[in-house]
Write a structure and sequence with these properties.
Blueprint: E1 3-13, E2 23-29, E3 54-56, H1 58-69, E4 75-79, H2 90-98, E5 102-107, E6 121-124, H3 137-148, E7 154-161, H4 164-176, E8 182-186, H5 196-215, E9 223-226, H6 229-234
Parallel strand pairs: 2-4, 4-5, 5-6, 6-7, 7-8, 8-9
Antiparallel strand pairs: 1-2, 1-3
Bound molecules: S-adenosylmethionine, ligand 2KA, iron/sulfur cluster (SF4) and magnesium ion.
Iron/sulfur cluster binds near residues 80, 81 and 108.
C-alpha cells in the first residue's frame, strides 16, 4: 500500500509541542482536508508541488530515512498535510516499530484512524478561528475519548495562537478536555523570511506577547507556552 510522501528529512530537533527538542526524523505526507489561512506547509495541499509527491511503500520510506539519517536516529515524526487521511499508514508505523523506532504523529484532529493507538507521541492540533477552519467537536471528542482509553503512548493538544479569538478557543479546549496536556504555540505570520537574523527578534517579541497574555488569564492555568523552536534556529527554511 503506497503512501503519498512530500518530503523526508532529518535528523533534526522536534521544534514544537510535547517532545520539543527531541532528535527526530520527519516524514511529511501530501494532502490535507483543511486549508488553514496561515498554514506553513501549504505546498503539501495547494498543488504547487504536486510533481514532487512520491508514492512510496513503507520499506522505501524506511530506506529513505536511512539514507538521510544513517544510524543516527531512533524517533520518526509523521506530519503533513494530514497523515490521518491515510487509512493504511499502519504499515509504516508497524515497520518503524519493528526497527525499534519511536513514532510521533502531527494531526489536526479532524479524522480518526485505528492506528493512532500505536503512536508513541501523538499531537492533536485543532484549529482556532484565525485559521478559517471549523472544528467538528463530535470527531475531536471521539478521538480524545479513544486515546484516553489506550494503554500505551502519550498524546497532547496544541493550539496555535494568532489573536484574541484563538485564546478564547484555547480556553474552550482547556475546559472541554481538562485532563489533556495543552500546549499553546505562537503563530508565525511571516512565512517568507528565511534569514534567521531578521526573523528571531520579531519571533521573540511575539512569543513574549503571548506569554504576557497567558500569564494574566484565569482559565489558561495548566498550560505550556512554546515557540516553534526550529524557526528560531533556521527561520522558515524547508527540510529542517
Ligand atoms: C503543518 S501542520 C501538519 C499537521 C496537521 N495538518 C496539523 O495541522 O496539525 C504541523 C503543525 O504546524 C502548525 N502550524 C502550521 N502553520 C503554522 C504557523 N503559521 N504558525 C505556527 N504553527 C503553524 C500546525 O498547527 C500544526 O500543529
Ligand atoms: N524541526 C521541525 N519541527 C517540527 N515540528 C512540527 C513540524 C511540522 O511541520 O509538522 C516541524 C518541522 O517542520 N520541523
Ligand atoms: S491542518 Fe495542518 S497541514 Fe492542513 S492546512 Fe492546517 S496547518 Fe496546514
Ligand atoms: Mg512545520
Amino acid at each position: 500500500m503506497t503512501i503519498p510522501v512530500m518530503e523526508i528529512f532529518g535528523p533534526t530537533i522536534q521544534g514544537e509541542g510535547m517532545v520539543i527538542g527531541r532528535k527526530t526524523m520527519f516524514v511529511r505526507t501530501a494532502g490535507c482536508d483543511y486549508s488553514c489561512s496561515w498554514c506553513d506547509s501549504k505546498f503539501t495541499w495547494d498543488g504547487s508541488e504536486k510533481d514532487a509527491i512520491r508514492k512510496m511503500e513503507p520499506e522505501e520510506i524506511f530506506e529513505a530515512l536511512k539514507e538521510a539519517g544513517g544510524e543516527n536516529f531512533g524517533h520518526v515524526t509523521i506530519s503533513g498535510g494530514n497523515p490521518a487521511l491515510l487509512a493504511r499508514l499502519d504499515g509504516l508505523v508497524d515497520l518503524l516499530h519493528e526497527h525499534g523506532m519511536k513514532v510521533a504523529l502531527e494531526t489536526q484532529g479532524s479524522k480518526w484512524q485505528d492506528w493512532f493507538i500505536h503512536i508513541d507521541d501523538l499531537t492533536l492540533s485543532p484549529k482556532p478561528p484565525s485559521s478559517g477552519m471549523k472544528t467538528d467537536f463530535s470527531v475531536l471528542d471521539f478521538i480524545i475519548d479513544s486515546l484516553q482509553r489506550k494503554q500505551k503512548g502519550e498524546f497532547s493538544l496544541k493550539v496555535v495562537i494568532f489573536e484574541e479569538a484563538d485564546l478564547e478557543y484555547a480556553q474552550h479546549i482547556h475546559q472541554r478536555y481538562p485532563d489533556v496536556e495543552l500546549f499553546l504555540q505562537v503563530g508565525n505570520d511571516d512565512l517568507e523570511t528565511v534569514e534567521e537574523q531578521e526573523f528571531l527578534p520579531y519571533s521573540l517579541r511575539r512569543y513574549e506577547r503571548l506569554i504576557d497574555r497567558v500569564m494574566e488569564d484565569d482559565i489558561l492555568k495548566d498550560v505550556r507556552v512554546l515557540p516553534q523552536l526550529h524557526t528560531y534556529l533556521w527561520g522558515n527554511k524547508r527540510g529542517v
